[in-house]
Design goal:
heterodimer; A: about 80 residues; alpha+beta; SH3 type barrels; five-stranded antiparallel beta sheet; about 15% helix; globular; B: about 675 residues; alpha/beta; Rossmann fold; 2 domains; six-stranded mixed beta sheet
C-alpha cells in the first residue's frame, strides 16, 4: 500500500520509494528513509497533502509524492 | 578569524547571528527561505571574528539552487571554524548533516540550539556522551533568549586556537562500506597524480580531464572547484551519493572508478547503490540518538491543540479566511488613514510653494517634482508596505506560512503549482522583487517561472497604491474590489493555462511544518527593516528624481513629443494623451505612474479630468502592462532572459486585452 492510502492516525513503516534519485534525495533531506516509522497526523481536504510525523518532525507530503511512497502498517 | 554558521533550515542560525552581529540579517521559519547569507564582525574576548550566516541546508548533496550556493560557499571558503547549529528538538534528523560536516576536515563545533524546546518535548540529552559519539565538541544554547551564544563562539575560537583535535567518534559507515570509500579515495588520488600536471584551464574539455579531481557539472561541483582544498575522501563521498545520471557528465575515467565502487558497495536487493551511504548515515544517527537521548513524557503543549484547529479540514480554512481578511483590512484601513493625512500635508506644502515661488519658474517645477516624489514614497507606498511587511514577518516567524502552504496545496495544484509556491505568490501582494526572490525555494525551473509569473501578475503594494488611490479613492471601494476580483480571475486563468502549456513534472509538495513559535519583536522588526531598506534606499531617490525629471520636462515642454509618440496606445485605450509619459515612468516604479498622472494632468483631483471609464482602463493597464525595472532585473537573475522576455510580452498583451475589454464593457454600461 502507498502512503496516500494510509488513513489518519495510522502508524506505518516506510518500505520503499518508487521515484527517481531526486525524489529519494528530497525525502532523505526531510529525514525520511526506508525503515522509518511514520504517524499520519492529518490529511488536507480536496486531495491535499498529508501531515505526518517522523522522528519528531512534522512534514507535509503532497498527494502525488505520497502515492510513490510504499508503506506497510505497523502493529 | 572566519567562522561560518551552518545548519538545517529553521535551526536558529540567524537568531544566533543576530544576537552577535545585530541588524544585518533576517531569520525565517519557512523551510529554505534564508537564501542569502549575511555576514558581520563581532569581538569576542578580544578576538575579532567574521561571522557568516549561511542559508539552511539539509545535507551536503545539492538538491536545489538555494542549497547549491551555500554548498559552494561552504567548500570554497577558508573557514577557520564551522559552527554546526542544530535544533536540539530535531536531533535525530539534524545529526546527519553533522556527520557530513565532520568529513570536511575543518574544525567543526556542534551547537545544540533550542534546548528549551527539546526539554518541552521531554528529551534529556547526554551532552558528554554525544560529544564522544560524534567526535566533535558540543555546546548548548537557547539562542532566542541569548543563552549560550557567546559561550559557543568562545568554544569555536578556542577550538581553532588549539588546532583541530579530532576525537574518533562513532564511524558513520559500517566497515564494508568504509573499505569501498577508502578504496575509491585512494584510486581518485592515484588517478589525479598520474595525470599530466598544469592543466589549469578548465574551459577546454581535454584540459579539464587533467584536473586532479573529477568534475561534476557546475551546479554540483562540490570539491572539484578548488582542487586540493578538500580531501579526495570528501570527493569520493559526494560521488558515491550523487544522482547516477551525473556520472555521464564527468571525466570518464573517474566515472568508471565510481561505477566500480558503486558496484562493490554492499546493497540490499531493493536498494540502489547510491542510497547505501545515506542510509548507513541515517542508521548511525539513529544509534547515536538512541544512546544519547532519553525521552520522557513531553510537557503538555498548547501547540498541538492550536495545530488541531488551524490545520483542521474545516476550521483551518475558516481561520485562514479570517486571517487573510483581517490582514488585508489592517493594511488597507491603517494605510488609508495614514495616506490621506500625509498627502494632505504635502498638498498644503505645494500650495504654500505656489504662493512663495513664481508658479511658472523652473524653481517651482523642480521643488514641486521633488515634493510629489517624496509624497509618493512616504504617503502612498509606506503606509501600506510597513504593516504588510510586519504582518508577513509575524506569520513567517510564527510558522503560519508553512500551514498556509499545507492548506492551499490542493488549490495551487489547480494552478499547476503546489503549496510551497503559495508563499512567493502571496509575497507578490507586497512587492514583486522579494516574491521572485522567494521562488528559489521551489525545486524546478518550471515551478520557479510559473510562480514568479503569477507573483508579478498579482498587484504589488505599489500597484495597490495606484488601485486604492485612483479607483478606491475616486470611484469607491466596490470598484477597487472589482479590480482585485478581475485580477484574481486573470491570475487563476494564467495559472491554469500555464499548467496546460507547460505541465508539472515536479514531484509535488514536501516540506517541513516547523512547530509554532512565538515571534520575537526584535526579529520581526529586523526583518521588516531589512525588506523595507531596499525600498527606501533604492526606490525613494528614484521616485524623487523621476518626479523632478518629469517636472523639468513639463517646464521645457518635452512631454508633448513623447506623448505624441505613445498616442497610438493611449488612443486605442481611449485615454487622455497626456497619460503616455506616465506609462513610461510606471516601468521604473509602478507607483510613479500615479504620481506622474497627477503631475501630467496638473491636478491631484483626477476625477475632474478623467471619466470613470478612463480611470478604470488606466488602472487595469498599469496593473498588468509590464513588471517594474527592479522586478525585471530580479527575474533575469532567477529564470533567464528568455523567460523574462516571455513573461513581459505576455503581460503587455494581457494588459492591452484586458484594458480594451474594460473599455468596451464600460462603454455599454
Amino acid at each position: 500500500m502507498t502512503l496516500y492510502d494510509a488513513g489518519e492516525q495510522a502508524v506505518v513503516r516506510l518500505v520503499g520509494v518508487s521515484g527517481g534519485w531526486g525524489a529519494r534525495q528530497h525525502l532523505r533531506e526531510m529525514g525520511l528513509q526506508v525503515g522509518d516509522a511514520i504517524v499520519i497526523l492529518r490529511r488536507a481536504p480536496f486531495g491535499g497533502p498529508l501531515a505526518l510525523r517522523s522522528r519528531g518532525a512534522v512534514i507535509a507530503v503532497g498527494r502525488e509524492l505520497a502515492k510513490k511512497i510504499r508503506v506497510e502498517p505497523l502493529k | 578569524m572566519k567562522i561560518a554558521l551552518v545548519g538545517q533550515p529553521n535551526c536558529g542560525k540567524s537568531t544566533i547571528f543576530n544576537a552577535v552581529v545585530g541588524y544585518r540579517s533576517l531569520t525565517s521559519n519557512f523551510a529554505g527561505t534564508t537564501v542569502e547569507y549575511a555576514s558581520g564582525q563581532a569581538r569576542i574576548n578580544g578576538n575579532v571574528i567574521d561571522l557568516y550566516d549561511l542559508p539552511g541546508l539539509y545535507s551536503l548533496i545539492p538538491a536545489n539552487p538555494a542549497e547549491i550556493s551555500s554548498r559552494d560557499f561552504l567548500i570554497k571558503d577558508d573557514w577557520d571554524c564551522i559552527i554546526n547549529v542544530v535544533d536540539a528538538s530535531q536531533l535525530a534528523r539534524s545529526l546527519e548533516l553533522s556527520l557530513e560536516l565532520r568529513e570536511l576536515g575543518k574544525p567543526v563545533i556542534v551547537c545544540l540550539n533550542m534546548m528549551d524546546e527539546a526539554a518541552r518535548k521531554g528529551m534529556v540529552i547526554d551532552v558528554r556522551r554525544l560529544t564522544a559519539e560524534l567526535g566533535l565538541p558540543v555546546a548548548q544554547a537557547v539562542a532566542s533568549r541569548g543563552r549560550g551564544v557567546v559561550e559557543t563562539l568562545r568554544a569555536a575560537i578556542s577550538l581553532r586556537q588549539k588546532g583541530n583535535q579530532t576525537l574518533p567518534g562513532r564511524p558513520a559507515y559500517p566497515e564494508e562500506v568504509e573499505t569501498v570509500v577508502e578504496d575509491l579515495t585512494a584510486r581518485l588520488e592515484r588517478n589525479a597524480s598520474g595525470g599530466p600536471t598544469g592543466g589549469a584551464d578548465s574551459s577546454s574539455p581535454s584540459e579539464s580531464r587533467s584536473q586532479p579531481v573529477a568534475l561534476l557539472p557546475a551546479s554540483t561541483m562540490l570539491v572539484a572547484e578548488r582542487p586540493g582544498a578538500t580531501s579526495a575522501r570528501a570527493e569520493a563521498l559526494v560521488l558515491l551519493q550523487s544522482d547516477p545520471k551525473w556520472l555521464a557528465e564527468i571525466d570518464p575515467e573517474t566515472a568508471r572508478l565510481v561505477r566500480e565502487a558503486l558496484a562493490a558497495l554492499p546493497h540490499g536487493r531493493w536498494q540502489s547503490p547510491e542510497d547505501v551511504l545515506p542510509s548507513a548515515r541515517h542508521a548511525s544517527c539513529l544509534s547515536i540518538f538512541e544512546s544519547t537521548v532519553r525521552v520522557e513524557r513531553p510537557h503538555a503543549d498548547w501547540r498541538e491543540h492550536v495545530d488541531a484547529v488551524i490545520m483542521h479540514k474545516v476550521w483551518g480554512y475558516v481561520v485562514l479566511f479570517l486571517v487573510f481578511t483581517g490582514f488585508f483590512h489592517l493594511i488597507f484601513d491603517s494605510g488609508k488613514l495614514a495616506e490621506t493625512r500625509i498627502l494632505a500635508l504635502f498638498d498644503r506644502l505645494i500650495r504654500l510653494l505656489a504662493v512663495s515661488l513664481n508658479p511658472h519658474g523652473l524653481a517651482f517645477f523642480v521643488c514641486q517634482g521633488a515634493l510629489l516624489g517624496t509624497a509618493g514614497a512616504v504617503g502612498t507606498v509606506l503606509p501600506y508596505l510597513v504593516p504588510f511587511l510586519i504582518g508577513l514577518a509575524v506569520m513567517e516567524d510564527l510558522g503560519y506560512l508553512a500551514r498556509i502552504g499545507y492548506l492551499t496545496d490542493s488549490l495551487m495544484h489547480r494552478l499547476g503549482l503546489h503549496g510551497t509556491a503559495t508563499l512567493p505568490v502571496l509575497l507578490g501582494y507586497g512587492c514583486s522583487v522579494p516574491a521572485v526572490m522567494a521562488t528559489r525555494i521551489l525545486r524546478s525551473r518550471r515551478d520557479r517561472f510559473v510562480a514568479s509569473f503569477l507573483a508579478i501578475l498579482v498587484p504589488c503594494s505599489a500597484r495597490m497604491a495606484v488601485i486604492m488611490a485612483l479607483v478606491g479613492f475616486y470611484l469607491g471601494a466596490n470598484w477597487a474590489m472589482a479590480i482585485y476580483g478581475v485580477n484574481f480571475a486573470v491570475v487563476a486563468l494564467a495559472g491554469v493555462a500555464l499548467a496546460r502549456l507547460w505541465p508539472e513534472v515536479s514531484p509535488g509538495m514536501l516540506m517541513e511544518v516547523p512547530s509554532l513559535r512565538r515571534p520575537g519583536v526584535r526579529l520581526v522588526l529586523l526583518k521588516t527593516w531589512w525588506r523595507l531598506r531596499e525600498f527606501i534606499t533604492v526606490a525613494t531617490p528614484l521616485l524623487v528624481a523621476g518626479s523632478v525629471v518629469l517636472s523639468g520636462m513639463e517646464y521645457l515642454g518635452l512631454e508633448r513629443s513623447i506623448n505624441a509618440a505613445l498616442s497610438p496606445v493611449t488612443g486605442l485605450l481611449g485615454l487622455p494623451s497626456v497619460t503616455g509619459l506616465t506609462l513610461i515612468f510606471g516601468v521604473m516604479r509602478k507607483e510613479l505612474s500615479l504620481l506622474m498622472l497627477m503631475q501630467a494632468l496638473g491636478t491631484s483631483n483626477v476625477a475632474a479630468v478623467m471619466s470613470t471609464g478612463q480611470i478604470v482602463v488606466f488602472t487595469f493597464f498599469v496593473t498588468f502592462y509590464l513588471p517594474c525595472l527592479a522586478t525585471i532585473a530580479m527575474m533575469l537573475k532567477e529564470v533567464g532572459w528568455k523567460l523574462t522576455a516571455a513573461a513581459s510580452g505576455a503581460m503587455l498583451s494581457l494588459a492591452v486585452a484586458i484594458s480594451l475589454a474594460a473599455r468596451v464593457v464600460l462603454h455599454f454600461m
